[in-house]
Structure prediction request, 383 residues.
Amino acid sequence: MKQIYLDHAATTYTDERVVQKMLPYFSEVFGNASSLHFFGQKAQGALIEARKQVAGFLGAKEKEIYFTSGGTESDNWAMIGGAIANAGKGKHIVTTAIEHHAIKDSAEKLKKRGFDVTYVMPDEYGVISPESIEKALRGDTILVSVMTANNEIGTVEPIEEIGRLLKERKILFHTDAVQAAGHLPIDVSAMNVDMLSLSAHKFYGPKGVGALYIRNGVAVDKYMNGGAQERNRRAGTENLAGIVGLAEALRIAVEELPEESERLTALRDHLIERVLTEIPSATLNGHRTKRLSNNANFCFGSVEGESMLLNLDLSGIAASSGSACMSGSFEPSYVLTSIGVDAERASSSLRLTLGRKTTLEDIDYTVDTIKRVIDRLKAISPF
Ligand code: PLP
Prediction:
């Protein structure tokens, strides 16, 4: 049976070139980068090189890159560390209703610790307008976090414009670029951000390693406590093989981005076009063009997203639905309800995210299968 992976927003495989680059750092170059001896210094050299590379690809300085355990830690650190370090200036934080749980739950935690949080709503396409951010600002706003691109519906946010208005007001600005990196050019200066989160496993790097860019001079409280690694701001022995892998994965993603983005956009548009014209009940979630090149997200009406997923899985297609399993029952996606999709329709959603190995044949097989599955599910539905 065919096996078609259309869940690249959940994670990607590690590129073979990245694996090869990482291998020596498990056994040959195994020293602790903090050790003064030869073994440690070799590891330290690789760490310096990886940091230099990552900084270069993001338009940052080396000392502004901090390696972490992934997107979740980077987001938690930016939110909690940023809020605590600036609490003396005010206690108001602005974020959006469609952020990943790594931001959303950090904001909720801060609320319990006496911070005030405003959640800005997107428009019907998932776009967060600079005007809506501006309206939410107060005299005591110390931190704003808006994702570069949404993980469910793929909408790309106007980060540069939001950053410009926050820069004028000297308010700290963080962006979660976990889904965007590898799909969009990332340049911290052009984006006007003070902090930016990345995660290697979303762009064909290894899992469990990420980075947080922190602009030079920005006050962010220490989040992991212990040793003096990462210039005494993020404790813990560095995951050297992972960091080398992240740097190599980013290099490949940046170099291949123009061509790959064009290829994926064409495949994505073909997928959207076919679904919308051939399945009458289908609607597209997110913006038609301001979306990640690899993301398509649909609602199909009277069929359950989970039933679709299971049936697609049986046909060899791996996809994702927007709902989250909460104590045995499925909750509709808060991203979809935030853009105005009603709860019932939201429960019929399906996210298809394309990747480096996705072909036109895969897309056509997937659309044909979705049509078949919907017809079958409708035929057995009691409603
Ligand atoms: N932020 C976004 C937008 C994501 O999509 C994800 C992962 O799905 C994360 C953060 C968390 O990243 P990680 O899995 O590396 O912890």
Summary: The radius of gyration is 21 Å.
